[in-house]
Structures are given as structure tokens and as C-alpha cells.
């Protein structure tokens, strides 16, 4: 099937809240290169509707998963001006009516002060080096959704289906400065996070769950984009959601979700599902 038709099928599945078979299960020739072509076509379609990309979300930020999924680096999906927002006072309502089977993931969000993905290097930058490209960091919730039954899919399906991105809500940012970068290098690798639903603890995680540090996830993304032919570099001002800190959790209307961290000075984040 042509790339455009596959993009239309995926877009329609989300719009109609309907399930489709994963591309990886169809015996087609959809590899990662083709999946990124589908993603690019979806970006073109969204831009034609008047939307703009505002950054990317990272997927598979875990090297143990790479071995199982036969990946050599992280993958990513685009985020848009109508899917990303800041939480006022650290809290935000989260409408779910248009989603199929949404889940929530606590993540570290970066805002870039300088472009990334422009220069292929022999190895990714260090955590200290990559933080020199960052304006601020924040705790946020990546909202994911997919049209594949039972959340069963492979990396090519992830990439083709918007990176399963449905939304991003982030709390009050912390500025990154020359003075605090050395502290952030250590804190991003060691901080812990608690994920609660309706006041009850449901999951715990750590910065080390994301390639040993969300900063290293950002560095890996930088080089993954730089080495992929045709990939758009990330501009200054772009946002990056760097990978989930805990297992993802299904969400439903009426839920209140909160993430709190220890070991790094980031404001908590809360969403109320409506």
C-alpha cells in the first residue's frame, strides 16, 4: 500500500476511534525507513490543516528493549501545537473523549535553547554537553494512545502511528544555567518519581530508567535524528519529552493523576481526566 494511503488509514483510525491491525502484522514491507516516511506524510497532512510541530517525544528509551525489538537507538514521534500545553498552577484538565485507549506516562520535558539533530557525531554528547543546549526542564505527563488492539505493536507501528502521541502536559519549568548544569547532571540520573492515582501510589520510577538519565536520552535522540536521512533537526524552542520514568498506566474519565519527584527541584504535575 502507498505511504499516503497508510497515513490516511492511521489518521482515520484515530479520528474515528477505531482499531486497525498493526502494520508489522500484515506481511508488508514496512520497515523503520518506511515508517518514518508515513510519519512525515502525517506531519505534512497536519501542517496542511494549519497545525505546526512543536517538538518530539522519545520512544523505547531503554537499551534492554532495543535488544528485544532489534533497535540500535531511540525512535521518536512529532508533537503538535494542539497536543502540548503547560499546566496552570501545576494542574490541568485532560479531555479523553477523542481517545481510543489512552495511557499516561510521567516524563522529563526539555525545551531547547539551541538546535539539535544537525551534526552527526561518532558518539552521543555527554549529559553535561547536551544540557548546554537546553533552556529549561520540567516534569510532565506524556499521554499516549494507539489504534492497535491490546496495545500490541512493534517499533515500526509506533513510528508510523504518530509515535502513539496524544498529548503532553508539563508543569512549572526549571531554568537550566551554566551554574546548575553540574548539579542537574547528577540529579537527572538519580532522582525518583512517584505516580499516584486518586491519591494512591500506583508506580515508582527513577531518572536512571530512561537510558540512565533523561539527559542521555536527549543526547541519544540528538544523534538518532542527525544520522537519519531526511529527518528534520529540532529547532531552538522545540520541546522534547524524553521517555517514560515508570510503566505506562491506562487512564479513564474521573481519574486524577499526580507525579512527584525527590532529588531534583521540579514542581509536581497533576492532570484530571474528563
Strand count: 14
User: What share of the residues lie within helices?
Assistant: 25-40%
Count of helix runs: 7
**What's the mean pLDDT score?**
96
Task: Explain what this protein looks like in three dimensions.
It is a single chain. The protein has 274 residues and is of the alpha+beta class. It has 7 helices and 14 strands. The protein has a single domain, classed as Fumarylacetoacetase-like, C-terminal domain (Fumarylacetoacetate hydrolase, domain 2). The strands form 2 sheets. Strands 1, 2, 3, 5, 6, 7, 8, 11 and 12 form a 9-stranded mixed sheet that branches. Strands 4-14-13-9-10 form a 5-stranded mixed sheet, with no helix packed on it. Strand 13 (256-262) and strand 14 form a beta hairpin. The longest helix has 17 residues, at 32-48.
Summarize the structure.
27% of the residues lie in helices and 30% in strands.
Amino acid at each position: 500500500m502507498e505511504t499516503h494511503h497508510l497515513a490516511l488509514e492511521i489518521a482515520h483510525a484515530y479520528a474515528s476511534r477505531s482499531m486497525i491491525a498493526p502494520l508489522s502484522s500484515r506481511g508488508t514491507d514496512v520497515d523503520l525507513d518506511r515508517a518514518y516516511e508515513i510519519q512525515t506524510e502525517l506531519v505534512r497532512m497536519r501542517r496542511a490543516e494549519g497545525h505546526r510541530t512543536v517538538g518530539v517525544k522519545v520512544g523505547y528509551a531503554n537499551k534492554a528493549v532495543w535488544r528485544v525489538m532489534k533497535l540500535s537507538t531511540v525512535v521518536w514521534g512529532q508533537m503538535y501545537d494542539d497536543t502540548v500545553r503547560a499546566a496552570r498552577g501545576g494542574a490541568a484538565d485532560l479531555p479523553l473523549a477523542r481517545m481510543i485507549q489512552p495511557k499516561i506516562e510521567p516524563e522529563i520535558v526539555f525545551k531547547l535553547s539551541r538546535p539539535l539533530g544537525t551534526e552527526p557525531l561518532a558518539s552521543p554528547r555527554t549529559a553535561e554537553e547536551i544540557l548546554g543546549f537546553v533552556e529549561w526542564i520540567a516534569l510532565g505527563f506524556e499521554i499516549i494512545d494507539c489504534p492497535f488492539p491490546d496495545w500490541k505493536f512493534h517499533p515500526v507501528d509506533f513510528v508510523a502511528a504518530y509515535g502513539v502521541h496524544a498529548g503532553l502536559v508539563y508543569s512549572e519549568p526549571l531554568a537550566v544555567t551554566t551554574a546548575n548544569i553540574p548539579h542537574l547532571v547528577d540529579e537527572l540520573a538519580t532522582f525518583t518519581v512517584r505516580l499516584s492515582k486518586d491519591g494512591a501510589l500506583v508506580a515508582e520510577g527513577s531518572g536512571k530508567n530512561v537510558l540512565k538519565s533523561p539527559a542521555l536520552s536527549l543526547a541519544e535522540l540528538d544523534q538518532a535524528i542527525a544520522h537519519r536521512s531526511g529527518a528534520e533537526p529540532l529547532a531552538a524552542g522545540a520541546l522534547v519529552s524524553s521517555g517514560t520514568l515508570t510503566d505506562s498506566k491506562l487512564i479513564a474519565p474521573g481519574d486524577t493523576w499526580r507525579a512527584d519527584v525527590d532529588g531534583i527541584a521540579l514542581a509536581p504535575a497533576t492532570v484530571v481526566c474528563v
